Structures are given as C-alpha cells and as structure tokens.
Amino acid sequence: MTTIGLIGAGNIGSTVAHLAVGAGYDVVLSNSRGPETLADLVDELGPRARAATAEEAARAGDLVVVTVPLKNVRDVPVEPLRGKVVIDTCNYYPQRDGQVAELDAESTTTSELVQSHLTGAKVVKGFNNIYFAFLRSLARPQGAPDRSVLAIAGDDADAKTQVTRFLDDTGYDTYDVGPLAEGWRFQRDTEAYAGLYVDGEVTSWPPQHARTVDAALLEEKLAAAKRYRDM
User: Fold this and answer.
1) Strands 49-51 and 26-30
2) DSSP string over 130-184
3) Residue 175: pLDDT over 90
4) What is the distance between the alpha carbons of residues 206 and 198, in angstroms, rounded to a whole number?
5) pLDDT tens digits for 103-118?
6) pTM higher than 0.90
7) How confident is the model at residue 231 (pLDDT cuts 50, 70, 90)?
8) Domain tally, the chain
9) How far is CA 198 from CA 124, 139, 151, 210, in A?
C-alpha cells in the first residue's frame, strides 16, 4: 500500500494527507471545487502529493479516505472504490446535513449509510472523533510512551488490519470497537467524541490543549456511550 486517495481535502483530509506524506505515502487529493483549487496544499505537501478529481483519487488510492460532509456522500463515486478499503470520517450534523430519518431514529449509523452507498467497498469508520489540529499534533512514533489511540469500526477484518497498519504508520495505536453498527459509540456528542482528546474541560471551541488518550481511557468512554434518545 503506497498511495492514499483522499475524497475531500478540508481540515481532516488535509491533516491526514500531511501525516501520510510524513510516513512516506504518496497522496492524491480531491475536493468538490476542482484540482486547481488544491495547488497551495499540494505545494505545501511536496512531491509526494498531487491533485485530481474525486474519481481519479478513488482509482489511484490503494486505500481511500472519504472525508466529506455527510450530505455529500452520495456524490462520492462508487465504481472506482469497489473492492477497496475506505476510511469514512463522516459525522452527522443535522443543521448542516439536513434531517436523515434513519439516523434520527438510530436504526442505522453514519458509516453504515456510507457503506450502503459504496457497494463493494470495505468501509472502516475512523478519524471522525478527534479535532483536526490534535490529530496532527498528537501523532507519535511507534513505542512512544505518550502515543494516543484512535477508534475504528468495520465489518471486514482484513480491511481493519490495513487501516490499523496505516494508523500505526501515521502515529497512532488502534482500538477496534467492532462492526460498523457499533460506530455510534464514538459519533457526535458521545463520551468518546472529540472532547475526549481535549486537556481540561471543554468550555469553548476550538480547544487549545490536547491530551494523550490511551486504550484504557478510550475503552472507558466507549463503554459509557449513550444513544441520543437516552441522553
């Protein structure tokens, strides 16, 4: 696995691109506004990066990160992602995405919706529950005592193994929460969401100080997660 395709190049997408390039991967970036709008980011990332269309990024990536607003998931190309591992970073914000009946009823999860669109792909939920600036600043090499852990969920064991390897290369240990259906445990507003990585009480956003999160703390917060209807 040498090339990471990115569909979406916002805060999380560009941060993942930085981490990937730093770990020796090539990256192919795309967004909804066209490759020419990514020239500055490509220059910043250096010779391992190039810009393309979403379909080109999907075809080029050995592993592909879909990091777009949930309302735009239906615009993600399906055919070039068949058979590929896809990391889904999406979160559901009704004020941005509009109301999604299945999510409001909690009869499914965001990543299961992404999987239902990307038929034939192997979707793994990840990178969705950490503030983008902390995603970059908390990355640590293997064996570092202050290395943090990130949660993933997915239905395909081999896909999760590939994502675990990528996270390891880019500075993080991995905690496997289980199938995509368990992804609700680290979705928006749960105990294991973005505030988990903030040092101190979250009184305003964006936060200023990150903290290391180990597997024991993440496991505790995942176990404490509550469905929206129970909050």
Assistant:
1) parallel
2) S-HHHHHHT---TT-TT--EEEEEES-HHHHHHHHHHHHHTT-EEEE--SGGGGG
3) yes
4) 10
5) 999 999 999 999 999 9
6) yes
7) confident
8) 1
9) 24, 14, 16, 5
- What is the domain-level CATH number for residue 49? 3.40.50.720
- Has residue 74 got a pLDDT over 80? yes
Considering the chain, what percentage of its residues have pLDDT values greater than 70? 100
Phi first, then psi: give them for residue 85, nearest 5 degrees: -85, 130
Q: How far apart are CA 29 and CA 164, in angstroms?
A: 21
Taking the CA atoms of the chain, what radius of gyration do you get in angstroms?
Answer: 17
Write out the residue range of the structural domain in which residue 171 sits: 3-230
Closest by CA to 55, choosing from 20, 15, 90, 28, is: 28
Strands (E), the chain: 3-7, 26-30, 49-51, 63-66, 85-88, 122-125, 149-154, 173-176
Mean pLDDT of 64-89: 98
Pairing of strands 63-66, 149-154: unpaired
Q: How far is CA 118 from CA 29, 52, 160, in A?
A: 19, 20, 17
Q: Is 95 exposed, middle or buried (CB count within 10 Å of its CB: 0-12, 13-18, 19+)?
A: exposed
Q: In this structure, are strands 149-154 and 49-51 parallel, antiparallel, or unpaired?
A: unpaired
